[in-house]
From TrEMBL:
GO molecular function: nuclease activity
Naturally occurring in which organism (per UniProt): freshwater metagenome
PROSITE patterns according to UniProt: BFN
SUPFAM superfamilies membership: Hypothetical protein TM0160 (SSF103256)
Protein name: Unannotated protein
Pfam families reported in the protein's UniProt record: BFN_dom
Length: 161
């Protein structure tokens, strides 16, 4: 997955992280996130360095100081509109997984330049094909509206196995 941008859903003033499938159909996966995380992701995308470390910068420094490496971030599932992620950390030859909010995990991944993956089920459930005729197709422009409609109409039974 690649981070396209962070947009603001106009009616609710809610930030939306837009990811795009790198392999496959290029589906867009929109994830509603908090304002602080939106800022952290935007700073990561733009390479902004602050005079003092912000929370995500500090966490990256702590990981490094402890001799660990953030090797990847995985968006593992979506359940009733809530997305889940794991951060894959490696210390020596030992790999550990930490549960995380996708917004925090992506903010960290952008800082350490590690890959971001999404489980196929996440892309199948929440992925939207970009509108090729849309001027915004490269930056996920209309995906926020489509995702809002998806969230408004989703039923827990839609995710049952």
């Amino acid at each position: 997955m690649e981070v396209i941008n962070v947009q603001v859903d106009i009616p609710g003033n809610a930030p939306v992280l837009v990811l795009r499938e790198v392999a496959g159909a290029g589906r867009l996966v929109p994830i509603f996130i908090g304002h602080a995380e939106a800022s952290a992701i935007t700073f990561g995308l733009e390479g902004v360095v602050t005079p003092r470390p912000l929370t995500h910068d500090l966490f990256c420094e702590a990981i490094d100081h402890l001799g660990a490496t953030l090797t990847s971030v995985e968006i593992t599932k979506v359940d009733g509109g809530t997305f889940y992620a794991e951060m894959v950390l490696k210390v020596a030859e030992t790999e550990s997984r930490l549960s995380a909010r996708p917004s925090d995990a992506v903010a960290l991944a952008l800082r350490v330049h590690c890959p971001i993956w999404a489980d196929d089920s996440v892309v199948e459930t929440a992925g939207l094909l970009p509108d090729e005729d849309s001027e915004d197709s490269d930056d996920g422009g209309d995906v926020v509206e489509e995702f809002r409609a998806f969230i408004d109409n989703v039923n827990p039974e839609d995710f049952a196995s």
